[in-house]
Amino acid sequence: MNLRAIDLNLLVVLETLLEEAHVSRAAHRLNLSQPAVSSALQRCRDLFDDPLLERGRGVMHRTPRAEALRGPLKALLVDVHALLDPVERPLRDLDQVIRITAADDPTLLIAGPLLASLSQSAPGLKIVFQPWSGTDSTLRSLTDGDTDLAISVLAVDQPGLERVTLMHETYVVAMRKGHPAAKRFDLDSWLAWPHVVVSGRGQMQSPLDVQLAEMG
């Protein structure tokens, strides 16, 4: 059977027809015309190769095949409804592991308050903080499902990922008293001095470099 040729709406009509065993009542429940429901019934008969509803003395009777279809059909449509419109579970009922990838600084900043809050609102959640190993690696982990959340500096939106701004940080330059750079210190003079890049993965470019490049 070619599943692509099956109209899901046809199964919705069939469920109502099998419940009512009456075309007019089914049409009224579905807010459809009687000819439209009669046409759907004929398509269902062709699909299942069975009369499904047979006319008796003033009433229609479900065939044995129709009776056998009622339970599985109802269960199928319930599953489809749950798939398309899932019931949101309360936080307190969740029992799962959430993996968060973050560098040391944001982890130290949010871990305590986050765990304290979740212990009250979602005690079944288990939080695992995973070490930061660079933007590219983290994006792959998010895409592959190896991590659920990441706290990072992302210069641009990434396809398939949702980004929410958590905070804004500013940089502070610290220097010894009497350092020559302190005189008329500005961005140009800061950039003129030699720099050392501290990178856990040996990367020569940081998110700050990306921002500076955009500034020209």
If you had to describe this structure to a student in words, what would you say it looks like?
There is one protein chain. The protein starts with 7 loop residues before the first helix and ends with a helix. The mean pLDDT is 85. It has 216 residues and is mostly helical. The relative contact order is 0.07. The chain is built from eight helices and five strands. The protein folds into three domains: 3-84, Arc Repressor Mutant, subunit A (Orthogonal Bundle); 91-151, 3-Layer(aba) Sandwich (D-Maltodextrin-Binding Protein, domain 2); 180-215, no CATH class. Helix 2 (23-30) crosses helix 3 (34-48). It has helices at residues 8-20, 23-30, 34-48, 64-84, 104-121, 135-144, 187-192, 207-215; strands at 53-55, 60-62, 97-102, 126-131, 149-151. Helix content is 46%, strand content 10%. The chain has a three-stranded parallel beta sheet, with helices on both faces. It has a two-stranded antiparallel sheet with strand order 1-2. The radius of gyration is 31 Å and the shape is elongated. Pfam families: HTH_1, LysR_substrate. Belongs to the LysR transcriptional regulatory family.
